[in-house]
Amino acid sequence: MRIVVLAGGIGGARFLRGLKQAAPDAEITVVGNTGDDIHLFGLKVCPDLDTVMYTLGGGINEEQGWGRTDESFTVKEELAAYGVGPEWFGLGDRDFATHIVRTQMLAAGYPLSAVTEALCARWQPGVRLLPMSDDRVETHVAIEVDGERRAVHFQEYWVKLRASVDAKAVVPVGAEAAKPAPGVLEAVAEADVILFPPSNPVVSVGTILAVPGIREAVATAGAPVVGLSPIVGDAPVRGMADKVLAAVGVESTAAAVALHYGTGLLDGWLVDTVDAGAVADVEAAGIPCRAVPLMMTDVDATAAMARAALALAEEVRG
Amino acid sequence: MRIVVLAGGIGGARFLRGLKQAAPDAEITVVGNTGDDIHLFGLKVCPDLDTVMYTLGGGINEEQGWGRTDESFTVKEELAAYGVGPEWFGLGDRDFATHIVRTQMLAAGYPLSAVTEALCARWQPGVRLLPMSDDRVETHVAIEVDGERRAVHFQEYWVKLRASVDAKAVVPVGAEAAKPAPGVLEAVAEADVILFPPSNPVVSVGTILAVPGIREAVATAGAPVVGLSPIVGDAPVRGMADKVLAAVGVESTAAAVALHYGTGLLDGWLVDTVDAGAVADVEAAGIPCRAVPLMMTDVDATAAMARAALALAEEVRG
C-alpha cells in the first residue's frame, strides 16, 4: 500500500510514528512543510523536515517534541557571546550539525530534496521524506503592533511571540512561484491513500497545499483523502492553531476545519470522541466522518488513530 | 610607541602575549597570516587569526596552543555521523561559533578585516589585529605521492599528514593578486618598530610578505625590523618548520633563517643562547645579532625576549 501524508512538524511526525506501526509494510511518502524554514546564523534550518526526520529516526527530544535528544547549547551560547542572535530560537549543538550539512550541500548546488534524502540516509526514518518544494517559500504572519500592521516570519510569530498577538493574515511568501519538489505529484497520483495528519491546517497542511499543483493533485487523486482533526474539544491539541485559523476566518472546531478543507479535498474526516456531536455536521456537508480517540498519548494510541484513518479510507474508497 | 608584528599562529600569539607585558603602553598592530585559512563544512576558518585572538583574549586552550579552552566536540561528532568530514581537523563547538559568525558576516558582504574587528570586539585582544589581506590566499604544499607530484592545502600537509613527507614547494596561491588589507601598509609605514616573532619563516611570515606591497613596505619602512629565530639548536622550537624551510632551500639553523630574510628586510636578529656561535655569521652578513634565551616557557620569559628585541631595535635605529 502506498500512503502519502502531508505533514507539518510535531503533530505530523508523531502521527507518522503511529502510522508506521499501524501499516508496517506500507510505502509511506511524506510531503513535508517547508514554509516555516528559516535562515539563522547563515544556515538553512528546516524545522518541520527535521522534526519528522528526528522523530522517525530516533533522535528527537521526546519531551519537547522538536530538537535533538541529549542536546547541548554551546554554539548558541558562544554566538550570544558575540552578540549574535536570535536567542529565542533554540538551536542545539547536535541540531547545528544538521543545518551545517544542509547549508553546505545547498551551497554546492544540491536541491533541498536531494539534501533531505542525504540527511535521511543517516536517520533512516522508514518513510520517503520529500520537501513540498525545492523552492523557497516562507510563511509570514501579519500582525498589528501599536496600530501598525507588519509582517513577521512565522517562526518569529510562533516561537518568539508565542502567538500572543492576533494573526491578521498568513501569507506563504513565494508559494505562487514554487514548484512541487521532484516526486511529490507522482507520489500523490500513485497513492492508495492520502492522509492529512493532525497538523496545523493553515501553516502546515495549508502551506503545502499552497504550492501550485499540489492541491489540484490531491483533489483529483484516485486515492481517498482522509484527515484527522487537530482540534479536540474546540481547542488545538497542541500549538496555537486557533490563532492562525482565526486569521483565515475559520473557527477552532473539528467541524470547521473539515469544512475549511472541504469536499473538494476530503473524502473522510476523523474527529475526537469528545467532538462526536460534530460528526453529523461534517457528514451533512458531504464528508464521511467518524469519532475516535485522537489524543496521541503514546505510539499505540497513535497507531489506533492511523488504523481508524486507513479504515475510513477503505470504507469511502470509490 | 607603535609596534607592528607579522604573526602566524601559536608562536606569534605567544610572543605577542610577552610583548604586551613588555610594552604595556605600546600600540601594537598585528598583521596576521591568512594563508592557512581553510573552508571547512562551508565555513571560513582562519586558524592563525583565531589563535592570536583567543590567546590574547584569554580563550585559548593553553596546552595545545590552538582552539578554545573548555571545548567540546558535539558538532564535529554529529557531522561525522552524517559522514561529513574532514575528521582530521579539530573544530570544537565553541570554535564553530566563531566560524559561523565570520561566515555569516562574509556572506553579508563584510571584508575579512571588518569581520576580524567585529570578532575582536568580544575578545578585546589588546592589539589591533589585521588580516594580511581581505583577498583569498591559500598556501598549498607540493608533495610527491607514489612518484606523482600533487598539491595539498597547507592544513592537509600540516595537520593531516603532520609534515611526514617532504615538501617540494610551498605556494601561496592567490597571493600575487591579493592586496594588503586596509591599514596594513599604513601601520608598517608609521611603525616605530617592526618585529618578526618566532613564527614560521615560510608559511607564516613568508606568506604575509608574499602579499604584493607588504615586503616592500617593510623593507623601506623607517622603523628598524628585528626578528627572533624560530630555530633553536638547529631544530624548530615547535611545529615542523624544517620541512617547509627545506622546500625553499633554507637550512634549519638560526643563521640560515636570518640570511633567508636578508639584509633587505632585517635590521636585527635574535638567536637563542645555544646558537651563540651563529651570531658572528649573521653579523658577517650585515645583520646585527644578539644571543638571548628564546624559549617561550612562560609569559615572563617571553616578555624578556620581547624586551631584547625592542632593545636591539633601539640599538640599531638609524
From TrEMBL, chains A, B:
Any Pfam family: CofD
Sequence positions that bind 7,8-didemethyl-8-hydroxy-5-deazariboflavin: D50
Reactions that this protein is recorded to catalyse: enolpyruvoyl-2-diphospho-5'-guanosine + 7,8-didemethyl-8-hydroxy-5-deazariboflavin = dehydro coenzyme F420-0 + GMP + H(+)
Cited InterPro entries: CofD, CofD-like_dom_sf, FbiA/CofD
Keyword Cytoplasm: no
Keywords assigned: Magnesium, Transferase
GO molecular function, one term: LPPG:FO 2-phospho-L-lactate transferase activity
Requisite cofactors: Mg(2+)
Pathway info: Cofactor biosynthesis; coenzyme F420 biosynthesis
Keyword Transferase assigned: yes
Source organism, top-level taxon: Bacteria
Signal peptide: none
Subunit structure: Homodimer.
NCBIfam families named in the record: F420_cofD
Name the UniProt record assigns to this protein: Phosphoenolpyruvate transferase
